[in-house]
Design a protein that fits this description.
By secondary structure, this protein is mainly α. The chain has two domains: 130 residues, no CATH class; 172 residues, no CATH class. The longest helix is centred in the middle third of the chain and has 29 residues. It is elongated, with a radius of gyration of 23 Å. InterPro entries: ELMO_dom, ELMO_domain-containing. It comes from Sitophilus oryzae. GO terms for molecular function: GTPase activator activity. This is ELMO domain-containing protein 2.
């Protein structure tokens, strides 16, 4: 019943309301959003919803075109400027907006387009990395693995490539490559980024993993958090973080930063939960994920690893 009412409202009354507001304000819905909604996630979400709900044939074609570009990762470099220019021009023509008068709209709308389809492109980029299997015959993969060890254990040298020493930083066996099967190279890239870009924080978290009561497998937990970060990105929950944080086209580094925030905060949540043992991991992780999802439902939420956190 509620779905039918919503469908009727969306199909019949929403266009009437938009028409009425256009006549009374002289502004189309996209203009009202860009002028009247705060920047970041609130504005970008509003623009995204308006474009996806449009009945205009030209706008629908534009959305499909941009989706194809993002999926095929062609939204980069000089191509990005041309794509943004074309998208803005299409909307200006369809909505009959004078760019000389509404130059602020041109800028604000272009930024929204950049974030919306930059996010979609990031999903494609992250998925490709996730599907890339760790290959011990690939020097670049092996180099990243050694860099992870050197960053976390700078005072201890590896005895060999396959060794029980890997279990010190939380891998399950003597060869870490077996633990990357689920998340592929993405799991390693996340761990390496956190351990190098937020080195103090990573060492702080690693020290907690050695706790006699609350200890856990650092690397395995990290890979599980990669799965969480990927799920939040893919289902759109992470849009709040990216839309409020990114000042330009969202990059893989921003995804790694998002992951780093999750890892640091999960460690704190884990310790505060005072689990009896590692068998409570799934339960604690689920509670933590629900907490993050709840925070992300607020479009004004921002996640940042501050300097004070980095140097704990």
């Amino acid at each position: 019943m509620s779905f039918s009412i919503w469908w009727i409202f969306t199909y019949y009354f929403r266009p009437l309301i938009k028409w009425f507001l256009r006549k009374t304000t002289g502004l189309c819905e996209l203009q009202r959003i860009c002028y009247g909604t705060v920047s970041g996630a609130p504005r970008i979400n509003g623009v995204e919803h308006s474009l996806n709900s449009s009945r205009s044939k030209q706008i629908k074609q534009l959305v499909d075109h941009l989706n194809d570009i993002a999926e095929n990762r062609r939204f980069t470099g000089a191509n990005e400027r041309e794509i943004l220019k074309g998208a803005v021009s299409t909307v200006l023509i369809v909505k009959k907006i004078n760019p000389k008068i509404h130059y602020q709209f041109v800028s604000a709308f272009g930024k929204c387009v950049e974030q919306i389809w930059g996010y979609k492109q990031l999903i494609s980029e992250v998925e490709e990395l996730r599907q890339t299997l760790f290959d011990s015959d690939d020097f670049s993969h092996e180099r990243r693995l050694y860099d992870l060890w050197d960053s976390l254990m700078p005072d201890e040298k590896l005895e060999s490539r396959v060794t029980r020493q890997w279990q010190i930083i939380g891998f399950q066996g003597d060869d870490p490559k077996t633990d990357f099967r689920g998340m592929g190279l993405l799991g390693l890239e996340n761990l390496l980024y956190f351990s190098t870009e937020y080195k103090s924080s990573a060492h702080h978290v690693l020290s907690h993993s050695f706790h006699p009561t609350y200890g856990y497998c650092f690397a395995i937990v990290g890979i599980n958090l990669t799965s969480m970060a990927w799920s939040l990105l893919r289902d759109g929950s992470a849009k709040t973080y990216f839309y409020n944080t990114s000042k330009s086209l969202p990059t893989i580094r921003l995804f790694h930063s998002f992951y780093s925030y999750l890892f640091y905060e999960f460690d704190r949540f884990w310790v505060e939960s005072k689990p009896r043992d590692i068998m409570e991991f799934s339960n604690v992780k689920n509670k933590f994920e629900q907490k993050i999802r709840t925070l992300l439902q607020n479009p004004r939420t921002e996640f940042r690893i501050s300097l004070s956190v980095q140097n704990v």
